[in-house]
Amino acid sequence: MAAPDTPTLRSAGIVGAGSIGVAFAICFARAGWRVRLYDPDAARRAAAPGEIALRLGDLTQYALLDESASEIAARVAIVDTLEAAVAEADLVQECAPERAELKREIFAQLDRVASPEAILASASSFLAASKFVDETLPGRARCLVAHPGNPPYLVPVIEVVPAPFTSEAVAARAIALYAEAGMKPVRVKHEVEGFIFNRLQGAVLREAYCLVRDGVASVEDIDTVMREGLGPRWSVIGPFETVDLNTRGGIASHAQKMGPSYARMGAERGQHDPWTPELVAQVEAARRAALPLDQWDERVGWRDRQLMHLARHRKTRSHDDS
Fold first, then answer.
1. CATH fold group of domain 197-321
2. Is the CATH number of domain 11-187 1.10.150.120?
3. CA distances (Å), 151 to each of 226, 232, 289, 297, 316, in order?
């Protein structure tokens, strides 16, 4: 990705130099931002430049950079204090371990030392901001969660999760900044544990564990079904578009034909979340707005061609690895 042609040089402060902090540093630096990376552990600070160089080297090898690795790495400074990390930052990305009390302490410090205009975002995977941003924090309106895919320089989706106390202007600006950095922001409308990414992943994992427990399939076979079946399909289109294109007549037809079977499978696991007519109508309306039924055949052909591209890539990769 080329550095954006923006009149103002953006600056990101990253707190935590673990794998996610390092990955965020690469994301922002690749987008042309100035990055200041801090970790309270001196060993982590010492290791970060080598880890950044290693990952940039891999990205170079796969032709995923539009600049040299050295130019991108030069935008990242490893700093010794929290204050240095957040100085002049447009966006502060906290990447500390998933512990509410630790995040509470960090956000209290960040609110004291960061510029009043800086957005304070946590990379929390499950904890909503309401769980660790203190009610008395003066700058709580600028705090939110921004949970990335891992690693974010390859999995660009980022979930922007405002708390009830987060300013609407802050949420909108965070979405704009992450998009400017080349990421794919998705707004989570309500605080729920796990947000979207881990709730979807968790649903698959729960069923996968149950299938192993019940002796239905082996670990290896379940991974094969995902890797060779659902994974390739979902890398092209999501679950709603998948079933919309799998059934002539679209998603309403799919719900009518397959909904009872899915309901029985859910009930088998003690889950009762029926696809009510109102819910199906809501989803159908969104799909028909995105794809009128008179374009259905054309989109099915597009899907198949995308899967052909993927199949060709996998075949080429298989030959290269042999």
1. N-(1-d-carboxylethyl)-l-norvaline Dehydrogenase; domain 2 (1.10.1040)
2. no
3. 20, 19, 32, 35, 24
The pTM for the full model equals: 0.91
With beta carbons less than 8 A apart as the criterion, state whether 29 and 39 touch: no
Residue closest to 113 by CA, chosen among 92, 93, 87, 139: 87
Give residue-wise pLDDT tens across range 63-111. 999 999 999 999 999 999 999 999 999 999 999 999 999 999 999 999 9
Q: What is the 3-state secondary structure (H, E, C) of 88-128?
A: CCCEEEECCCCCHHHHHHHHHHHHHHCCCCCEEEECCCCCC
CA dihedral 66, 10, 81, 139 (to 10 degrees): -140
Q: Which amino acid is at 127?
A: L
List, in sequence order, the alpha helices (H) in the chain: 19-30, 42-61, 69-73, 82-86, 100-113, 168-180, 197-213, 219-225, 231-234, 239-246, 251-268, 277-290, 296-321
